[in-house]
Amino acid sequence: MTTTEQFAPWNLDWLLQDIAKSVPQTRHVVVVTADGLCKAKWNTDQETAERIAAGCSGVRSLAAALSEELPPHEDRRLRMAAIELPAGFIFVMDASEGSHLAVLTDRGVDTGLIAQRMRDLVVRLGEHLKSRPRSDGQLP
């Protein structure tokens, strides 16, 4: 059983297809748990999705740590982190309690459109993307 299959009695992968199909140059769409596991994926194999999940969890943690250097604010959730590389972009957004949405794109993507589609998905599916924290090494 893959990590994605262990999270829910139904497969959430199909929920992510709207981003991948509606925004040209989208490569990978992954829902990541707060501790770096792949909860759902679209347009990628399991091994790649798990690498993306681990990396994006690190990005999320780094953003949270750096947010402490900003003026105090009660809401420290990650709205969006965008990393631009020569080959493309990495976007990470808090999706719901314990989950993040990660999207990797090619260089020429419409960054505004991808950000809008990510936000729309999070608003529409927030409850379905929620992940409980693990206890005693058990998956949620």
From TrEMBL:
SUPFAM superfamilies listed in its UniProt record: Roadblock/LC7 domain (SSF103196)
Domain Roadblock/LAMTOR2: 13-105
Listed name of the protein: Predicted regulator of Ras-like GTPase activity, Roadblock/LC7/MglB family
Signal peptide interval: none
Gene3D superfamilies membership: Dynein light chain 2a, cytoplasmic
UniProt organism field: Streptomyces aidingensis
Cited PANTHER family: SERINE PROTEASE INHIBITOR RV3364C
